[in-house]
Structure formats: C-alpha cells, structure tokens
Amino acid sequence: MKRLKIAGRLQSPTPQEIAAFLSLNIRSGKYPEGARLPSEQSIADHFEVSRPVVREAISRIKADGLANSRRGSGLYVTPIVERQSFKIDAKVIKDPSAVIKLFELRLPIEKSSANLAALRRTDYNLEKMEYFFNAMKNCDDHDVEKYDLQFHLAIADATQNKYYMELMAYLGSVIYSSIRYARSNSDSGVHFKTIFEHEKILEAIRNKNPIAAEAAIRTHIRGALKRLKAKI
Prior knowledge:
The structure is a single chain. Helices cover 66% and strands 3% of the residues. The chain is mainly alpha-helical and 232 residues long. A two-stranded antiparallel ribbon has the order 1-2. α4 (96-120) crosses α6 (144-158). The longest helix has 25 residues, at 96-120. The protein is elongated and about 60 Å long. The termini are far apart.
C-alpha cells in the first residue's frame, strides 16, 4: 500500500500542533479510512523535528482513536465505525461557517433535551433554570454568555439522562465560544431578543409542555443562526 504524502508545513511545531494537523487530515477524509499514514521518520523529516516529538503527536491521535498501529506494518487510519472518540477543535470558532455548523449540530440535541426536560424536570431543576435565566437577564454584558451556557446545561440536567448532560458538558467550551461569537456579530438588540427566547423556553418547561419547549428552543437556535448569517 502506498504511503500517504504530507501536505503543508508548520513552523517549529509542537507535538500538539502536529497531532492537530494529522487529526484534521484524518477527520476531513484527506487521509481515508484504512490508509497507511506516513512513517515517524517521514513526518519528522517533513516538519524538521525529532522523532520523540513525532511519537508524542502520534500517541495523541491514537488516544483519540483516529489511528492504530499494526505490528511490523505501521500506523493506519482507524475506520469511522471503530473510533471511540468525538472531538471538536475550539479553533473552529474562528471560522464563521464552522460556527453555523455547530449551531446546526446543537439544534436536534437541544430540541430533544428541552422536550425531555419538560416531561421530567423536578422543582430543583426548575429553580436552577430560573436562577441562571435571571442571572443572564440582569448581569453585566461580559457574563451573559456564561449564564446562557449554564441555562442550557441546566436543561440537559433536567432530562434525568446523564448522557445529555455529559454531551452538553463536553460541548460546553465550544458552545460558550459560539454564543460569544454569535452575540458579538449580532445587532445591539440581540440581548433583549435572546432573553425573550429563553423566557419562552423556561415557561414551557415550567408548565411541563414538551411540545412548546421543543418549539421554543428551535425558535431560539434558529433565531441565533439567522442573526449570525445576517452579519457574515
């Protein structure tokens, strides 16, 4: 099998940067499933680094489940169905098109989350949502995104399904960054619009109305997408 070639070059790359480079090429499909990756020495020569630096980079992509070693044969791209990890690089927030994709990813997850939260929420769950909503409504501008994220995490927690909470917590940093990006690229009235949208979500969950909760969060996320696209 022909080895894959390395395209592009990094200046004095760290193991983390080389791993990110390889990861991007694998996740994008440039290095296809089952393909044999370049050797340690080839990568070291290309980036002008030592082999220990390359080994650390390779250990990172193997830990992420993107590649696996075959004794005496080399390193191969792991088929998608066999991968045991999922990762979103926080750097995507610098790319407007990637932020839009992230909002599209959030939509079905949060619709389902809001639906279940309305059906299953406890009084304690509701108190948490109300606390973060009021904090978001009354805080200084630089804290809005923090309480916005906490409000959405409280909805996930109210599903009584730990996997929703774990997934939303995992997505937390990029969701926080995407919220900041969307707000910074929207008009001056965005705060009042989003407060109104969150209030509708809270009201539906308070009333234990799953259909209304799902519709409210759909309106909110689609509204954020619309506002973002208008500024790109």
